[in-house]
Amino acid sequence: MIKLHVFILIIPPPLLCFLLITLPLHVISQNVDAERSILLHLKQQLGNPPSLQSWNSSSSPCDWPEITCTHNTVTKISLNGKSITHKIPARICDLKNLTVLDVSNNYIPGEFPDILNCSKLEYLLLLQNYFVGPIPADIDRLSRLRYLDLTANNFSGDIPPAIGRLRELFYLFLVQNEFNGTWPTEIGNLENLEQLAMTYNDKFRPSALPKEFGALKKLKYL
Ligand SMILES: *[C@@H]1O[C@H](CO)[C@@H](O)[C@H](O)[C@H]1NC(C)=O
Ligand SMILES: *[C@@H]1O[C@H](CO)[C@@H](O)[C@H](O)[C@H]1NC(C)=O
Ligand SMILES: *[C@@H]1O[C@H](CO)[C@@H](O)[C@H](O)[C@H]1NC(C)=O
Ligand SMILES: *[C@@H]1O[C@H](CO)[C@@H](O)[C@H](O)[C@H]1NC(C)=O
């Protein structure tokens, strides 16, 4: 403490003001630069869709219409209806503060995107794309997930038991897919679930409504 006082006292006050003002700005702009370069790389991997023409190196990503920043860090990406035909690259999770990812209404092919490293993700909207294959068995790595909409794709297989470990989930829409397996009893563990929809899945194995659904005390919409 004493040493720090001495240090501050021997810096001329104008210089001290300069340091105090510019240091935080410098850190902020470095973060924004790093996140812009991640997003520009993402744009490239998405095949440079014309719908993302405002993503360029001379503007701040926080000013791009598809991006929302909170305290100068990217927290939301909304690519709804942007005619995207490429897979979502795993590098999107280099945006460490990403909480909302909406890629609804595109033509994205392939399996469930490789985004389980996006550890702060809360809202994931994949509806109306060309996704196929299973929901990952380790989807619970998205431990903060609150909202998951997979409507109108061709996902198949079982609903994995790991879904039951997404304790924050309040919205789960699995409508219109090709699920041809079973429901895990762990669904009953989703104590925060308020809306659950699974219509238009005519390949599910016929079964009784799982009695575990009775544990979903907050459910308002089924
Ligand atoms: C970069 O994008 C901004 C909008 O984000 C636009 O106003 C500007 O003209 C673009 N600059 C170039 C060089 O394309
Ligand atoms: C993420 O947000 C935290 C808290 O707002 C901030 O300190 C950190 O620098 C952000 N990370 C990046 C990569 O911008
Ligand atoms: C996810 O994160 C782990 C640990 O940081 C890393 O080893 C792995 O390569 C990452 N996976 C992807 C697909 O980026
Ligand atoms: C999804 O499956 C349906 C029925 O099997 C098929 O008609 C449709 O072409 C598939 N769509 C995609 C995008 O794979």
TrEMBL record:
Pfam families attached to this UniProt entry: LRR_14, LRRNT_2
Domain Leucine-rich repeat-containing N-terminal plant-type, chain residue ranges per copy: 33-70
Organism: Vitis vinifera
Keyword Hydrolase carried by entry: no
Keywords: Leucine-rich repeat, Repeat, Signal
Protein's recorded name: Leucine-rich repeat-containing N-terminal plant-type domain-containing protein
Domain of life: Eukaryota
SUPFAM superfamilies associated with the record: L domain-like
Boundaries of every Disease resistance R13L4/SHOC-2-like LRR domain copy: 114-222
